[in-house]
Amino acid sequence: MTGSIILIGPMGSGKSTIGRLLAARLRLPYVDSDALIVAHTGVDIPTIFEIEGESGFRERESKIIADLASRREPIVLATGGGAVLDPVNRGHLRGMGRVIYLEVSTGEQLKRIRHDRNRPLLQNTDLDARLKTLAEQRNALYQETAHWRVLGDGLRSDQVLRRILRHL
Ligand code: S3P
């Protein structure tokens, strides 16, 4: 196991916010796999989904994760909510260091991302039902991939951060 910290969990679980705080505290580089995809393509995530479909986005996501896993220097990595769908990604993420599952209920997710426009999987749909379906499909994968999990419901980011720091 190398020394990176990898945050996984559903949309709205706070991976980017907590990742940034954690990286600053630990003086490690912060990396966001979605942001890398956007930087490489030069377009936003909804546009990638529009042009290449979800499968095109997943290919890009897997390539970025494989590339990050091949590097030596420790980082704090915030992943996209679907990064755990690919079993190869799951192996890469676990191999990079400590994988933390930021767990939140769908009720908490709803509060945080009700008016989101940047997540294609949540557009033009019954948000509550969609979040529940995604949770049914993915929660076991988050569990299986993570070394440990932190429950984020009702907590501010600084409180989640403190819980993580206590465990490290
Ligand atoms: C996705 C989550 C998003 C982004 C893309 C797909 C997903 O990242 O990767 O819209 O499948 O759950 P966040 O979890 O950071 O919102």
TrEMBL record:
State which Enzyme Commission number(s) the record gives: 2.7.1.71
Q: Which protein is depicted?
A: Shikimate kinase
Organism this protein belongs to: Acidithiobacillus ferrianus
Lineage of source species: Bacteria, Pseudomonadati, Pseudomonadota, Acidithiobacillia, Acidithiobacillales
Instruction: Provide the top EC class.
Output: transferase
Q: Which domain of life is it from?
A: Bacteria
Keywords from the named record: Kinase, Transferase
